[in-house]
Amino acid sequence: MDEHSALLAAIEAEMRDTARWTGRPHLSRHVAAALAKVRRPAFVAPGSERAAYENRALPISCGQTISQPYIVALMTDLLDLQPDDKLLEVGTGSGYQAAVLAELVHKVYSIEVIPELAQQAAAALAAEGCHNVILRTGNGSLGWPEQAPFDAIIVTAAAAHIPQALIEQLRPGARLVVPVGPHHGDQMLKLITKNEAGELKQRDVLPVAFVPLVSD
Asked: Which of 35, 143, 146, 209 might form a disulfide with 169, Cβ 3.0–4.6 angstroms?
């Protein structure tokens, strides 16, 4: 078994192990296929390529991280994406999560607050042939009002509270996946859904550890 296949097997094993909390014993075939296609080594920091197929978070530049592949997989799966969904990612980071999402929808809107990271992610995505990710540098807590509403929003850093702007930019029937909690404290991955009447339903999915959401 090669390293990429071993990583996919490790992700599926962790999905089974955490199913009693997440309600997801396995990945959808579409998410599994996206993970199989995207090369994680293309998005890690120089010198970390040998660790890219390990199922763990890795440091990247600007004090940020590339998330654990299992967490990328789980968050993606929780969105239940359809190809025509309008999707917003808050926190482009290395670009890896965006690359996975880009395999599942026709267009990904992604915001990164740190200009250096945004530039690096844009270069990595272009090098990998990911041309359906629209990048913007700015405060992701404010969402992307000009493109709202969205069918799905994913936040890849921990928010102290769920940004109201993101709630407002959800279309009825939409899903928001976001880690919530203090830096160096208890954080919870949450799934928020908005029904056709605009009412919100919130579910705690799994304890997690993310870098904090930077809002300026």
From this structure: 143
How far apart CA 94 and CA 117 sit, in angstroms, is: 7
Residue 117 lies in a domain: yes
Residue 216 located in a structural domain: no
Give the residue numbers annotated as catalytic, written as ranges.
67
Question: Number of C-alpha atoms within 13 angstroms, CB side, residue 6?
Answer: 8
The CATH number covering residue 86 comes to: 3.40.50.150
Q: What is the pLDDT of residues 72-90, one digit of tens each?
A: 999 999 999 999 999 999 9
- Look at residue 215 and tell me if it is in a domain: no
Q: Domain containing 96: what range?
A: 3-208
| Residue matched to tokens 């592949």 | 69
pTM of the predicted protein model? 0.96
Closest CA to 113 of 159, 171, 82, 164: 159
